[in-house]
Every structure is written in structure tokens, then in C-alpha cells.
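Preliminary data (for renewal application), heme C complex.
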Amino acid sequence: MPTNIVGMTFKPFPLLSTIIMMATSTLSLADVIDNGLRNRLEFFGVTKYELLPVDNSPEAVAKVELGRRLFIDPNLSGNKNISCMNCHHPMLGTSDGLPLSQTEDGKGVLRRNSPGLFNIGDKFNVNMFWDARVNYHPGNKIFTTPEPSLNGANPKSVEITSVMKSALAAQAIFPLVNVEEMKGRPGDNEIANAKDNLEAWDLIIKRITTKSDPGKYVTLFNRAYPETVSEKKINIGHAGEAMAAFMAVQFQSNTSPFHRYVAGDNSAMSAQEKRGLSVFINRGNCIACHQGSLLGNNTFLTSVGVPALGARPFVADRGRGEINKEFHRDYFFKTPSLINVALTAPYMHNGAFKTLREVINHYNNVEKSLNDFDITPRKSEFKVDVEVLNSQAQKDDIFYSIQANFLKRGLGLTPAELDDLEAFLTGALTDPKWKPMPKPQGRNLK
Ligand code: HEC
Ligand code: HEC
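Predicted structure:
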């Protein structure tokens, strides 16, 4: 039996189908292994990944172009010093290469790691941010966000919510009003002086649509949203929806060896990558959480016991536990997609791990990883002094937030299995289309 060729322990369902296939055809051993892997993948919702349908209507084309301009335009930031692209750069895996992103003034750090944006426009991505604090329910068209006037069945700011069609669109308008990400501090500029988010958003639209603007934004807004011509009513929802359209189209990826393998090309992945996939599915049980064609279930939040670190006063980050007083979900974060994960180092919500090897070593023995975690050798990567939650009680708190017992016990993967898993994560999951170009230096990537 081929059971251990790729280190697999077949579960009953694929075993049965494997036997049937062996009995009824002249499949080679390699085919049998591939069929077994595919059956398991299908079971976890991993199927051929299709790109979004192309929309060539003039409105859709204008929307993407508008979104592209907004995404790279520092004029959207209060102090005109930073754009979305500074922290989500295509040459840095749509992220910024930093453990914790830098503040708009370049002097401090944010609380979290900038996530990559690959396939961010996927229709299943109804949650945004590591703690899912922006959510959209496509069925009843309800937003849940940090801005109350956008939320619920009868939002106060209906002129904004009626334009936005996804969590991604709603997400895109929040970095603009975050003091440290893009807005700047009161006293710095007119947007930072606004009395609330709604006024700040209005001022941003006013700034970029004034006639003197060389970007000719008004024309683009009118083209993308013909209704804004007659009503002369452009609002931040139009900007968010356009940036969402741009991100959705621009950051798609479905030509990694893994995606080609899932689509039916058995030769797309090497033998070692296939063994690594088998570890991912079976011995590592990674797929229990990293499900679906993007290997990350956007709706599943949980804890994997990541060491907590940050700059004072934000050393502790309880993730979802900080939203709506959901204390039973302390240290829960969203399960990220792993497509192109090799391009988005450092890892986890706070950049605690520098390499994929460090990530898988962590999973292999979470207790040891938490206890031994030492940020000292990496302090120079941060703009400011960062600290780690280090008391035994704090570490225990994090450890016991883990729900998956197999993670608490430790996986016990062998060095060879760790090598294979790493080969799968780096080799098979990287889309050649997105392989990094030489890394630009410094943060001003405008
Ligand atoms: C200063 C760096 C910085 C800037 C500027 C910035 N981001 Fe981000 N972005 C981050 C960080 C950090 C997070 C994670 C924050 C969190 O989860 O709490 C994030 C999260 C996101 C997410 C959520 C992804 C996910 O999987 O949940 C999207 C989408 C995104 N940013 C798009 C944008 C857009 C659009 C802009 C411009 C309007 C922008 N970002 C500006 C750093 C930045
Ligand atoms: C219990 C659910 C669960 C299991 C099992 C699991 N993960 Fe994760 N994974 C997550 C969550 C949640 C995060 C984000 C955690 C955080 O930032 O605190 C994550 C983050 C990651 C990241 C970082 C991605 C990034 O962009 O920063 C990698 C890589 C990863 N997991 C790989 C794996 C591998 C390999 C395995 C199997 C050995 C595995 N995961 C098992 C839930 C899980």
C-alpha cells in the first residue's frame, strides 16, 4: 500500500476511493497519491480557484482606475505623507516587510503587522482586520464597523453605506481616519482637527475633489459612479468602493504551484512539496483551520498562542477579546490565507516570527515557543522599544486561550516533516507572478 510514501495516514474516505481507483484502472503509484491528496483537499473545501469575472464596462474600468489612484495617493493622508501603498506595497508582498507597521510620521509603531492583500476581494472575505472588527453581511447588507453611523439595518449614514458593497470597501475608509496610520494628530492638519470620522471623511473628499486638483478626481468619480454627476454628491463610500475594486482586481493570485496542482496539474508540485502538503493536511492538521481554496478561513477566529509583544502602552493585544467585551475570545485572531505567505514576512498579527521556519517550529511545540520567546536579538527591527508579555501568568493566559488540544499537546513533527512542510509553504504556495522584485529601501515608497 502507498500509505507512507508521502507520510500520509489515509482517512477512511480517501482510502476507500483509492482502493476503488486502484482496482478499476491502471493508475500509477504517483497518481494514487495525488488522488488521495485531492480527496482530502476537497473535503476541506479546497477546489480550483477562479479569478473574479472580468468586468469591462466603462463604470467598472473607471472604478478600478479611481481606486488605483486613491490607493497610491498621499493626499488622502492628513499630512500628505503616506498612502495605502506605503504599508501594502506590491514589491513587499502587498505588505511592508516590517514586524509592526510604522506610524504615519515614521516615528513609532502601530499595534499590528500589515497583512498581505492577496485575493482580498474574495467573496468569502466578509471580515476585515486581524480581529474582524469590520464585517459585512452580504445577505441583509448590514455593516458592523468601529463607526456607529455605518452600522445596523438602518444606518444613519445611508448615503455612504448604500454605495459600499463589501467588507473590503468599508475597511478601506478606516486607515484614513486612524491617527497613527494616515490622519495625523490634532493640530497637524484640517482632517486631523475634524470633530469626528464623518467630518474627516468629508474633508478628505473635499481636498481631493477641489478643482485645483491635478489628479482630475471629479471626472473619474463621475465616470465610475454616473449618479454622482447629477447629484454632485461624492462621498467617502465611493472612494472605499473604488479602492476595494482596485484591490480585488489587482491583488488576485491563482497561479501558485499549489493552485495549479489543485486545478489538476499533477506535475505542478515537487515530490517534497507534496509530502509537505500531506503534513499540512494530516500530521500537522494545519488544514483544520487553514481551510478553503485560499488556505485561510476568513470567518474563523481562534488563538494559536502567539507571544504578545508591542510598544507601551500596547504590549498586550487581546485581539478579538477587545471587541464588544468578548473576553472569552481573548487572543483570538483571524486565520489568514497562506497563498504567497513566503512573500509576507514577518508573521502573525504582531510580526512575532521572522521566518516560516520559526512559525512551524512554534506550531510544533507551542508551549516551548511561548516560554522561550526572546525579542532581544530583533529589537533593532522596531522603531521604538518593544516589550513582550513575559510573566508566567501572562504566558499561561495566552497558552490556555488555545482551543485546539492538538496544538496544546504539540505536534511532534520530525525534522524531515518540518523541512517538507516548509518546502510546501515556500515553494508550492508562491505565485511566480508575485515573486518579489528587488526590495525597495526605506519606507517612502511613493
Ligand atoms: C501605516 C501603515 C498602513 C497604511 C497607511 C494602511 N494600512 Fe492597511 N493595514 C495596516 C495594518 C497594520 C493592518 C492590520 C490592522 C489590524 O488588523 O488591526 C492593515 C489592514 C488592512 C486590511 C485588512 C486585511 C485583512 O485581511 O483583514 C486592508 C484591506 C487594508 N489594510 C487596506 C488598506 C487601505 C485601502 C489603505 C489606504 C486607505 C491602507 N490599508 C493603509 C497597515 C496600513
Ligand atoms: C487552531 C487553528 C490553526 C491551526 C491548527 C493552524 N493555524 Fe496557522 N494560523 C491560525 C491563526 C488564528 C493565525 C493568526 C494568529 C495570530 O496572528 O495570532 C495563523 C497564522 C499562521 C501563519 C502566519 C500567516 C501570516 O500571514 O502572518 C502561518 C504561516 C500559519 N498560520 C501556518 C500554519 C501551519 C503551517 C499550520 C500547521 C502546522 C497551522 N498554521 C495551523 C490558525 C491556525
